[in-house]
Amino acid sequence: MIYRVNPKNGDKLSQLGFGCMRLPRKGAGIDYERSTALVRKAIDSGVNYIDTAYIYPGSEEFLGEALKDGYRDKIKLATKLPLVFIKNGEFDKYFNKELERLKTDRIDYYLLHMLTSFNQYESFVNMGVLEWAEDNKRKGRIVNLGFSFHGAYSEFIKIIDAREWDFCMIQYNYIDENHQAGKRGLQYAYKKGLPVMIMEPLRGGKLANEVPKKAREAFEAVKRGRSMPEWGLRWVWNHPEVTLLLSGMSNESQVAENLALANIATVDSLSQQELSAYKKATEIIRGAVKVPCTGCGYCLDCPKGINIPAVFDHYNEIGSVAAGKVLMAKMRYIMEMYVLRSGEPRYASVCIKCGKCEKHCPQGINIRQQLEKAAVALESPFTRVLGKIAKAFVGGKNK
Ligand code: SF4
Ligand code: SF4
To answer: b/e for 238-256, b at 16 or more Cβ within 10 A?
Structure first.
């Protein structure tokens, strides 16, 4: 296992972290026996960073069991405060539950989960989240405080600059090099001395299972025999600014492949030829997209609160998923725009066509027209009803 040093506190962290969001399932829940074997195999092979979240169904409870027998003390444990459920500063309620589920007295890396904009961040600051977290750091219940981010670069910078963070986590992979926080965000955080953890290195499996034939050929032309996950993970590890990446491993062969790669993939190990293959593949993959949105976020000041780049992300995604996965893709959209956030739905269909956003778009995208098409592709009376049911369930479960 190759380890990288947290520049803030000297922790030696495995460059492969285990993300516990896609563990193998049995019936309606996690397959404890199989998942425990996977997690322990990874730890026995050198993985020392395990990531979960309050909102990953059953994951924290599972880890509370899987990390028994001394495994808890072999690793750094990361979990996240579910901002989406918090209305009035009830941070303790969720944090205490997390400690109880995980059967631990401290979280080594604690994240404010899913920040997307500075305004959203400020709303939690106004509820006292920072005082609360600092108090828990003094008590040793939180060791490092950070946040996970899914928004535009400009918002990321504002949040990074707002205080002295211990770490941050961003989405990063070869097709998102200039998307969300992107390379500029990664480098900015690194220059400020922050460890940067990477999520979605394979874009939720898309860069493993759904790479178009022409893009695969671009890779094969440079080096034969590498799997698509290997191409994806190597690209992330090639960056000196990356502290570790999280892989949501869900079977034995993924664990074996990732462990083998994490032993050999070093910083700056990709050749110029290989780097050009990524560029070519990215052009092919991105060329197949419906809306050429770069995720810059200049359009985000929408009076209806629509996260326009996130909508376009889902819209672009739905064009490339296999027929059998369309409903799941639609549900991911419904979850992000409604179920897992506070307040009213922020669906593409709530656009009032004021045109304010279009004045700011450097790509010249006809946002109103594209949102209309996105609404047709992503929303239906059926999925909206499912969204309402899921919202009621999530709200009810977490009161
Ligand atoms: S046109 Fe629609 S998306 Fe754009 S700012 Fe107005 S309401 Fe928001
Ligand atoms: S729609 Fe335009 S302004 Fe908005 S994030 Fe995409 S590229 Fe940027």
So the answer is: bbebbbbbbbbbbeeebbe
Instruction: Supply the pLDDT for residue 85.
Output: 85
N-terminal to C-terminal alpha carbon distance within the chain: 42
- Residues 272, 320, single domain; the answer is no
Whether 316 and 249 share a structural domain: no
In this prediction the pTM is 0.80
What average pLDDT does this structure show over 114-133? 93
CATH code for the domain in which residue 39 is found: 3.20.20.100
Distance 20 CA to ligand 1 centre (A): 36
Examine the domain organization and report whether 272 and 382 are in the same domain: no
Distance 240 CA to ligand 2 centre (A): 28
The model's confidence at residue 343, banded by pLDDT at 50, 70 and 90, is confident
- 13: Cβ below 6 Å to ligand 1? no
Q: How far apart are CA 343 and CA 365, in angstroms?
A: 28
Instruction: Work out the burial of residue 151: count CB atoms within 10 Å of its CB; fewer than 13 is exposed, 13-18 middle, 19 or more buried.
Output: buried
pLDDT(5) > 90: yes
- Residue 45 — pLDDT band, cuts 50, 70, 90? very high
Domain end call among 264, 280, 296: 280
Query: Is the beta carbon of 368 within 6 A of some atom in ligand 2?
Result: no
Ligand 2 contact via 215 beta carbon (within 6 Å):
no
- Asked if residue 298 belongs to a domain, the reply is no
Enclosing domain of residue 313: 308-397
- Where is the domain boundary, 232, 260, 280? 280
| Residue 353 CB less than 6 A away from ligand 1 | yes
Which DSSP symbol is given to 232?
H
The number of domains in the chain is 2
- Ligand 1 centre distance from Cα of residue 359 (Å): 10
Whether 378 and 315 have beta carbons less than 8 Å apart is answered as: yes
Q: Classify residue 384: in a domain, yes or no.
A: yes
Tell me the pLDDT tens digit for each residue of 240-253. Answer: 999 999 999 999 99
C-beta of 222 in contact with ligand 2 (< 6 A) = no
What's the confidence (pLDDT) of residue 396?
46
CA 305 / ligand 2 centre spacing (Å): 14
What's the mean pLDDT in 59-71?
A: 98
Here the tokens at position 165 are 């963070």
Residues 138, 254, single domain; the answer is: yes
19, containing H or E segment: strand 16-19
Which residues, in sequence order, are bridge partners of residue 76?
49
For residue 309 and ligand 2, the question of a CB distance below 6 A is answered with yes
pLDDT score at 320: 67
Residue 301 lies in a domain: no
- Residue 361: CB within 6 Å of ligand 2? yes
| Inside any domain, residue 269 | yes
For residues 129 and 187, state if they share a domain: yes
Determine the residue of 337, 352, 359, 361 to mutate for testing ligand 1's pocket, defined as the one with the most ligand atoms within 8 A of the Cβ atom.
352
